[in-house]
Amino acid sequence: MRRTPANRLLLALVGLPLLALGLAVLIGSADLQRHWDFTLPTSWPFAGPDDVLLARHDQIRYRSDGWWWPVVIAGLAVILPACVWWLLTQLRTRRLRHLSIDSGDRQGALVGGRALESVLTAESQAYEGVKRAGATLRLRRGRPRARFVLGLAPNAAPDDVVAGLDDEVLAHARTSTGLAELPAEARLRAVRHRARRAS
Length: 199
Hints:
This protein has six helices and five strands, in the order H-H-H-H-E-E-H-E-E-H-E. The protein is of the alpha+beta class. The protein has two domains: 6-91, no CATH class; 98-190, Alpha-Beta Plaits, CATH 3.30.70.1350.
């Protein structure tokens, strides 16, 4: 039950129009339609290398205001690094790729993070009162941390579900991996049911 984070959705909504504008400028400025022999729609804003982003009228409109262009340039100089930083943080994953455990033979073993997530998801979904479950493992300060999203049935007791999550699901994970502790965060949501029509 994984959902796209809101910040990535916002990044996509902002980035796609900017990407389209950049491609439109690139096609026109590089005169690709002539080099690659294709035609552009009549409404295409930049049809050739002689077209400009700002018309002469727009360039000189605020020339009398000496603060206008320095403010625009300074604003863009701040926004561009901020957007690049935001993009890089979205691309960087903090999910647990693998976990090294003591196998008793002095060699050790690696357990895949996805495999461990699947086990946590299956065990938490099998718990009474849980209709849907999702589990992810992330690294925080070099230590694994679990995050659960649980869809509860109408008759489920949230206190019992959280206690069972700690006493059974997380206890099994700590025992099998040899971790002294496995901090966890659980988000509980009610699963909606369609009303049944009586006949």
